[in-house]
Design goal:
Number of domains: 3
Bound molecules: 2'-deoxyguanosine-5'-triphosphate, magnesium ion
Distance between the termini: 49 Å
CATH superfamily of the largest domain: Reverse transcriptase/Diguanylate cyclase domain
Number of helices: 25
Helix content: 40-55%
Length: 607
């Protein structure tokens, strides 16, 4: 789309062309928290219901909305307009998260890209599915399901009207499936881009759907009363726009691009113009596991350390439930506080985070657990971070505390990964865990190489950009006995070359394993950091003292060990015997040159 079109508010529909190839569906669950509560207690279905968090009704069912109970109303105001309002406490989000995840699972069954947006909204890119169906169906006569924003004047030449009609059928099927399987009613918006799909979705609520054709995008956008209604326009941009008398989306459509360019970067100005016209080319990105899992609790004010500790303890309990559901092992913890600043009459957030030892967590029978001692360790770390954020010699007033696990241990899944080959599916444990469990029969060969640095906290202020991914501090190599047939183990040369080649990540891990094993013996134990450091030294003890396999630690699988080539066995044994002697500090790239016959050289063929 050119500037001329933008300045006149032309309705050309998609970033520089008149083709609208995509079909996007946006799904929003009706009165989400209220529906979850009504499913839990069907008696609530027939009464006006509000879900309360603190003194706010965060949502209400449609029965209550008839009385004018709105989302985010004060409880006192809601009770005034609807004295029969039944209130349910919705501060524990567990059931809402579970329902949200189930909806996501249902959406995944369509085998399309699904992007989760918050807890009750999802985008689904059904472009491919629509194309498949358009080949088989009598497409010319396909009927639209639900509402259409406006009847088209003329058919778009690219064929998008038919495609979007097919998408509307799919949206209906999706909503029906969510209802059949989970009992939840939803709304859907269908359009050729995410922006329009999301904005058109609530046009007919509840339990209904609306489709918009591209040629009506700009027209529909011009009905939005505030530029803030556009999802990617935040409060700062809104403020700037309002300060230039650009208040409605129509204002934004009509303002000259040059005016916007004076107040925003050129890219931003162009983007704002496109958005105002209903144009958006952002892709639906498949949602994976969240980068962090966190919880916050806000309150009027807390000024005692003991109260803070209680708040954190309660948050930790709830957070551990979430982490167990997620299944990944956290390796980093962040504490957030919001301080009330009496001088500024405002509040601001501050955070600190640190690495935590993965040995705090254990996985048994596929379930992540934390022992009582592990929880105490976490609380010690949390309060240590808290002490760094707050000067306890002075009075403090907090209005929020938050906890989040911000990084997770990754398991490599590449098919050519030797680590993967050796990994044991059922346990990703540190040596300490194995030791604690006294599981000498475990079929695992586990090198845990926590460096001293991982045993002390590494603080990062919240303002900092996330540090670039650090090399993992722990390496878990677990021999996968059950995958090796007798013949295979008898001759390591039979292992496929691909399985012997480490990828660059693993290469780093191997070098780190070696470097850390040296570091550990050279670096004195830092006394106060008991939580993690003790893990490291216990690990070392286990390695040094283990030994019913001619120098191998007790947890090593003899069968797998004996299948390794002789020089590798020797090198491993030497390393266990005297960790400091095994390597000199070299970069991963040069390591295989450092010694002519190293373990690493065996794994990484010279090119
Ligand atoms: P709807 O979509 O209009 O039928 O109603 P809801 O309740 O689904 O509203 P929605 O989609 O905006 O938000 C989904 C849930 O998120 C809602 O059930 C309660 C919660 N929620 C919404 N707004 C807020 C808020 O401002 N604060 C808090 N704490 N929760 C909110
Ligand atoms: Mg909703």
């Amino acid at each position: 789309m050119d500037d001329r079109n933008m300045e006149t508010g032309s309705s050309a529909s998609n970033y520089g062309d008149n083709e609208h190839p995509k079909s996007i569906i946006h799904i929003d669950i009706d009165c989400f928290y209220a529906q979850v509560e009504m499913l839990r207690n069907p008696e609530l279905r027939s009464v006006p219901l509000g879900v309360q968090q603190k003194n706010i009704v965060v949502t209400s069912n449609y029965e209550a909305r008839k009385y004018g109970v709105q989302k985010c109303m004060l409880v006192t105001d809601a009770m005034k307009i609807c004295p029969s309002l039944k209130l349910v406490n919705g501060e524990d989000l567990h059931n809402y998260r579970t329902a949200s995840n189930k909806v996501f699972e249902v959406l995944q069954t369509w085998k399309c890209q699904v992007e989760k947006l918050g807890m009750d909204e999802n985008f689904i890119d059904v472009t491919k599915l629509v194309l498949e169906r358009s080949k088989s169906a009598d497409v010319k006569n396909v009927a639209l399901s639900g509402h259409l924003y406006k009847e088209p004047g003329i058919e778009c030449l690219c064929g998008c009207h038919i495609r979007l009609k097919i998408a509307s059928q799919i949206a209906n099927e999706i909503r029906q499936k969510i209802y059949d399987e989970l009992g939840l009613t939803t709304c859907a918006g269908v359009a050729h881009n995410k922006l329009l799909a999301k904005l058109i979705c609530p046009l007919h609520k509840p339990n209904d759907q609306t489709t918009i054709f591209p040629d009506h995008g700009a027209d529909f956008m011009s009905t939005l009363q505030s530029v803030r209604s556009i999802p990617s326009i935040g409060s700062k941009t809104t403020e700037t726009l309002i300060s230039h008398q650009i208040i409605t989306v129509k204002d934004l459509q009509e303002v000259a691009l040059e005016v916007l360019k004076k107040n925003f970067s050129s890219d931003m100005a162009v983007r704002l113009k496109h958005l105002s016209l209903g144009e958006d080319n952002t892709p639906v990105k498949q949602t994976g596991k969240p980068q962090s899992i966190g919880l916050e609790d806000s309150f009027k004010t807390v000024s005692l350390k003991s109260e803070v500790e209680d708040k954190f303890s309660a948050l930790l309990q709830r957070l551990l439930v979430l982490v167990r559901e997620d299944g990944r092992i956290p390796v980093s913890l962040r504490v957030t506080l919001r301080k009330k600043d009496a001088k500024r009459l405002s509040s601001h957030r501050e955070s600190r985070q640190c690495q935590i030892s993965s040995s705090i967590f254990t996985i048994s029978n596929g379930i992540l657990t934390v022992t009582e001692a592990g929880q105490q360790k976490l609380m010690t770390i949390i309060m240590r971070l808290f002490n760094k954020l707050i000067d306890l010699s002075k009075p403090f007033h907090l209005t929020l505390v938050g906890l989040a696990f911000t990084k997770f241990q990754e398991r490599m899944t590449g098919r050519s990964s030797i680590v993967n080959y050796l990994m044991n599916d059922i346990s990703v444990q540190s040596v300490l865990n194995l030791q604690n469990d006294c599981d000498t029969s475990a079929t695992s060969m586990d090198y845990s190489a926590a460096s001293p640095s991982s045993s002390t906290t590494t603080d990062l202020s919240d303002g900092e950009v996330e540090p670039s991914p650090k090399k993992p501090k722990k390496v878990n190599w677990i021999a996968k006995k059950r995958c090796l047939s007798k013949e295979d183990v008898a001759s390591p040369s039979k292992l496929k070359v691909g399985e012997l080649r480490l990828n660059s990540k693993e290469l780093e891990k191997v070098s780190e394993l070696r470097l850390n094993s040296r570091d550990r013996s050279l670096t004195p134990r830092a006394s106060p950091a008991k939580d993690n450091l003790s893990d490291t030294s216990d690990t070392m003890k286990d390695v040094a003292e283990g030994g019913n396999c001619e120098g191998c630690p007790s947890y090593v699988d003899k069968e797998v060990f004996s299948a390794l080539p002789g020089n590798m066995q020797q090198e491993l044994k030497a390393m266990w015997k005297n960790p400091s002697s095994s390597v000199t500090r070299t970069s991963p790239r040069t390591m295989n040159k450092a010694k002519p016959n190293t373990l690493l050289k065996y794994f990484v063929p010279h090119k």
